[in-house]
Automatic annotation (TrEMBL):
Swiss-Prot/TrEMBL keywords: 4Fe-4S, Iron, Iron-sulfur, Metal-binding, Oxidoreductase
Superkingdom of the organism of origin: Bacteria
PANTHER family noted in UniProt: COB--COM HETERODISULFIDE REDUCTASE IRON-SULFUR SUBUNIT A (PTHR43498:SF1), FERREDOXIN:COB-COM HETERODISULFIDE REDUCTASE SUBUNIT A (PTHR43498)
InterPro entries cross-referenced by the UniProt entry: FAD/NAD-bd_sf, HdrA-like
Any single Pfam family the record assigns to this protein: FAD_oxidored
Protein name: FAD-dependent oxidoreductase
């Protein structure tokens, strides 16, 4: 009987009951588990902080999750602009590289698992899924606690911490705490932003819902629900729908910019469902798409992907001029590079184009002050709610940019909790330099900043290598590409005369080919609108002609130059299969014409083709390029900037090895290595496939020696950053890293070697 009674709970009637309440204290509480909140939590936890991560959905990732299925993008912009080698670094890079390795097909469900695994692997993180923040209490102007509720286990949480972070997208914590915010678009006169939209265009970006279809190989009937949009022609661009486009390529199925994008989200969702089912009814039942006969509607989003709602006021408000002029900030903590991308408020029902873009010449800095609430002293902001104008928000809102801001905020929160500081205290110059240094240590990309690390023992060593690449030729073993558009090869050149260059071309008819040497306005500027030299070459018809480009151009500093072949329909140029870190071929794809009325600069876009295409041009170089010295391993730039910033060995070096030598033995506990996972490849997280699991430039297999003794060996690396921990620490006056194999590219390269 006693065993049977234990199976039964009997609760007598009472006048009331309270929810089960759990009290959790942490160093920082982060509300919101999109990419910004996820990266903030991981970064803070790895910095030693105890973190509670509150996420109101069943999975992490926000708009990148399987619930919404938008690919994560940022400064790399699907290689559509001049932001070369601009993919975000640090934790987000680790996530995207891992997802590409496991999930090159872009399965959104598998991306969920990558995010959940990364968070669950951190013992300092307490993850609360399906838990929504519902209240905040304050001591004076500071947040004391956050109340949250999980409907799944009927538990109320009281969360306390010295520092809080709002990464919730709608800014629920900042709102509950009474922080100042904005919603909508500033007028042109407030900040002098010429791109600010007119009232007829609308003041808010809307929301989108995506759908996936599947071919089941047999006819499938579709009966639309009664709420489906009955007349597809209500959508001005209805003729753009077809059976080949699905998922987030239909980003322009957008609605809600005329509504309250916080409180009207359910209403917006229903309108988007009407559109999606109306579109599918059109594709299945109009008779115009016979190929749709065997298609079924596999998935429709259950919640809309939200672009814009509240933006909170911080210590600085980023604006159009900061982005277009690429202004520098003493407290820069991350990068942006997406265009200022405004959408009409009427979305799919608008007669306007789906978006209106204004591109800067390249990447720009985002200052820490944009992430610090100006009136709630212990509140940090991450993701799309940071302190920016509506126009600047149109660029900073994209997920990879938000994630990189989250990384910086996570480290700042950990630093504040550790040292008893408030977020604004970190703006002090010495503290800011320390924060920037630690961000760079974790792989964060901050344009214009390099890692100057006094704790790095490698800085005290003499750096040498078994050999260094001197590139004299790229063999013509690849297919020819037509000059149906102007094409160029980026070349990392040293100060002095431009070397003599020789190309191989096929010519179908006598013609004159114009060749130019171009560069950007700054050493790390990849918009090639400065023409240094021009040469017109008279060519006869014939295959495999070698043409020499010897021009009187001189460079004043290390920088990339563009060897440009102008469009000529009678000419094709030979390519090479050889891939080298820091070398890239591009083509002129379009031009953003200047428009002073909206503050838009003229920008020619020279963009690469995605692999497996996108081969370098075959050429010989005299004198050879010596752009990959061992000294690059310690210059603090773990990606190409004005030069490759990598050490690469000579192709005939059968044991490429980098050596560090000290005058006296050093005690080394940790070795950190930076590899090339191709920061020019956007690595979209879902739907968009990738040709390789591991990037061909990345070192797969390496050995570490202390003197003659092997102290570490990795055989299966595919990540950008790899750390070797020595337990116990080793003492040595010589450390070497031998590269055994890459994932395909020869010669392999290393960006950084650091010792602690």
């Amino acid at each position: 009987m006693s065993a049977q009674r234990n199976l039964l709970t009997v609760a007598p009637a009472t006048d009331h009951r309270d929810l089960r309440t759990q009290h959790l204290h942490a160093d920082t509480v982060i509300v919101g588990g999109g990419l910004a909140g996820t990266c903030a939590a991981i970064t803070a936890a790895r910095a030693g902080a105890r973190v509670v991560l509150v996420q109101d959905r069943p999975v992490l990732g926000g708009n990148a999750s399987s619930e919404i299925r938008l690919w994560a993008l940022g400064a790399s912009a699907q290689s559509s602009n001049n932001n070369r080698w601009a993919r975000e670094g640090g934790v987000l890079d680790e996530i995207l590289v891992e997802n590409t390795f496991r999930n090159p097909e872009g399965n959104a469900v598998l991306f969920d698992t990558v995010l959940l695994e990364k968070v669950s692997a951190e013992p300092n993180i307490t993850l609360l899924l399906n838990t929504a923040a519902t209240g905040a209490t304050k001591d004076g102007d500071r947040i004391r606690s956050v109340t949250a509720f999980c409907a799944q286990d009927s538990t109320r949480y009281e969360l306390t911490a010295p520092v809080f972070c709002d990464a919730s997208g709608d800014g629920v914590l900042g709102y509950l705490a009474g922080a100042a915010y904005r919603m909508g678009a500033e007028g042109r006169e407030e900040f002098g932003e010429l791109f600010a939209p007119e009232e007829s265009y609308g003041a808010l970006l809307g929301q989108s819902i995506y759908f996936y279809s599947k071919d089941v190989g047999a006819p499938v009937r579709f009966t639309p629900p009664s709420y489906a949009l009955p007349d597809i022609t209500e959508i001005p661009r209805w003729r753009s729908f077809n059976t080949a486009v699905q998922g987030c390529r239909l980003w322009w199925i957008e609605y809600g910019g005329r509504l309250d994008t916080v409180h009207d989200t359910e209403r917006i969702k229903w309108e988007l469902w009407k559109v999606v089912y109306g579109v599918w009814n059109h594709l299945k039942n109009s008779g115009d798409f016979p190929e749709a006969d065997t298609l079924t509607l596999e998935w429709v989003g259950l919640i809309p992907g939200k672009r814009e709602s509240r933006r909170f006021e911080g210590l600085h408000m980023l604006r159009q001029q900061d982005i277009v002029e690429q202004r520098t900030h003493p407290d820069a903590i991350s990068s942006g590079g997406w265009s200022m991308d405004l959408h009409p408020a009427d979305g799919v029902f608008s007669a306007h184009d789906g978006s209106s873009h204004l591109h800067a010449r390249g990447v720009y800095q985002i200052p820490y002050r944009c992430a610090v609430s100006r009136d709630v002293p212990n509140l940090l902001l991450a993701g799309r709610i940071i302190s920016v104008t509506h126009v600047a928000f149109a660029s900073t809102r994209v997920m990879a940019t938000c994630a990189q801001i989250g990384q910086a905020v996570g480290l700042a929160a950990a630093r504040c909790a550790r040292d008893g500081l408030l977020p604004a205290d970190l703006v002090e110059p010495e503290r800011m330099r320390a924060l920037q240094r630690d961000l760079l240590r974790t792989g964060q990309h901050i344009p214009g900043l390099s890692l100057d690390d006094p704790d790095d023992l490698a800085r005290q060593a003499t750096l040498t290598a078994s050999s260094e690449l001197r590139l004299a030729a790229l063999p013509a073993d690849g297919p020819p590409v037509p000059l149906d558009r102007s094409r160029a090869q980026l070349l990392p050149l040293a100060p002095g005369p431009v070397p003599r260059l020789t190309l191989t071309v096929d010519v179908t008819a006598p013609t004159t080919l114009r060749v130019e040497i171009r560069t950007g306005g700054q050493p790390d500027d990849y918009t090639p609108d400065v023409v240094l030299a021009t040469r017109d070459l008279t060519l006869d018809a014939g295959a495999a002609q070698r043409i020499e480009v010897d021009v009187p151009a001189t460079l004043d500093t290390h920088r990339y130059a563009f060897l440009v072949l102008r469009r000529n329909d009678d000419v094709s140029v030979r390519t090479t299969t050889q891939r080298v870190t820091g070398l890239l071929a591009v083509a002129h794809t379009s031009t953003q014409e200047a428009d002073p009325a909206i503050g838009r600069p003229r920008v020619e876009f020279w963009t690469p083709e995605r692999r497996p295409g996108g081969r370098n041009l075959a050429l010989t170089i005299d004198p050879p390029l010596a752009a990959w010295p061992a000294a690059s391993l310690g210059n603090g730039h773990p990606r190409p900037t004005a030069r490759p910033n990598a050490w690469a060995a000579a192709p005939d070096d059968d044991r490429p090895t980098a050596h560090l030598r000290w005058a006296e033995p050093r005690r080394i506990a940790r070795l950190e290595l930076g590899f090339d996972t191709d920061f020019d490849h956007p690595m979209e997280s879902v739907l968009w496939g990738h040709p390789e699991r591991a990037m061909p430039f990345c070192v797969r297999h390496y050995r570490v020696r202390a003197g003659d003794r092997i102290v570490a060996e990795r055989t299966d690396n595919h990540q950008t950053r790899d750390t070797v921990t020595f337990e116990p620490p080793i003492e040595t006056a010589e450390l070497s890293v031998e590269v055994v194999a890459s994932h395909g590219a020869t010669p392999p390269a290393i960006f950084a070697i650091r010792c602690y």
